[in-house]
Specification:
The protein is α/β, with parallel strands linked by helices. It is 24% helix and 23% strand.
Length: 250
């Protein structure tokens, strides 16, 4: 089991923490996960593989679909360029189909926006929002927030059309704290200059990890396999996943 998965396991099993701002000891009662792929288009296949790898891992650790919010900006499994329809792999050997047969996507395609993401975290959703699209956390909830996509110094792109900044993200998490919407947050981000996205955090009880430092690229892992199948060889020219997701997967 990798170091990152070990952290995930300990976070899921955590039962006590001291809430610094209120000076009141709260008890951990439930676990949630918000998993977000912010990229569209076939050449960003790896980002979908990233988020589905984390999705598979948290389910194996015991978090049910009813407590996982999965946001996927593009459907690579059904992309006409996919030589293996209805599948998404996180390695060139195709050992693990992370799409599987039981993936429940809550926000897909153009529903994956900065506004919907922030509204989801802060609970500021329309009254008619389906339960499956709501983060129904409370002051006893441990929440994993995982983001993957293209980013830079202090921002993360959503679908090449908009960005969420590190300050906006920090303010959204502070709203969660003020509204007693979490007990602890484990924040993971897979993007270039990823550490810049948590430099502005000022809320308590947040553990953050990143796949790259400020000023550093987050390079993906690419494996090469020789095959007589031209279409499959073309498929392998894609980069499959970022390094952090490689070490999280089982």
């Amino acid at each position: 089991m990798s170091f990152i998965v070990s952290i995930l396991f300990l976070w899921v099993c955590s039962t006590s923490v001291f809430l610094q701002s209120s000076q009141v000891e709260a008890r951990h009662t439930n676990n949630w996960a918000v998993l977000v792929d912010t990229s569209r288009f076939w050449f960003n296949y790896r980002h979908v593989a990233n988020v589905l790898s984390i999705y598979r891992s948290v389910k194996r650790l015991g978090i049910p679909d009813s407590q996982i919010i999965l946001m996927v900006a593009d459907d690579m499994a059904c992309n006409p360029r996919n030589p293996r329809p209805a599948t998404v792999f996180n390695n060139a050997n195709q050992h693990i189909n992370v799409y599987g047969d039981d993936v429940e996507v809550d926000y897909r395609g153009y529903e994956v926006t900065v506004e919907n993401f922030v509204r989801l975290l802060t609970g500021r959703l329309p009254a008619d929002t389906p339960r499956s699209k709501q983060l129904l956390t409370d002051e006893g909830s441990n929440v994993l927030v995982y983001l993957t996509g293209h980013g830079g110094d202090g921002f993360l792109k959503f679908q090449d059309s908009e960005e969420v900044t590190s300050q906006e993200l920090a303010d959204a998490l502070e709203q969660m704290w003020q509204k007693r919407r979490y007990h602890e947050i484990f924040f993971m981000i897979d993007t270039c200059q990823a550490a810049s996205m948590y430099e502005k955090f000022y809320s308590p009880n947040i553990l953050a990890v990143a796949s790259s430092l400020v000023g550093e690229d987050s390079l993906s892992v690419s494996l090469t396999i020789l095959s007589t199948d031209f279409q499959f060889n073309h498929f392998l020219s894609l980069y499959f996943f970022f390094a952090i997701s490689y070490y999280v997967r089982f």
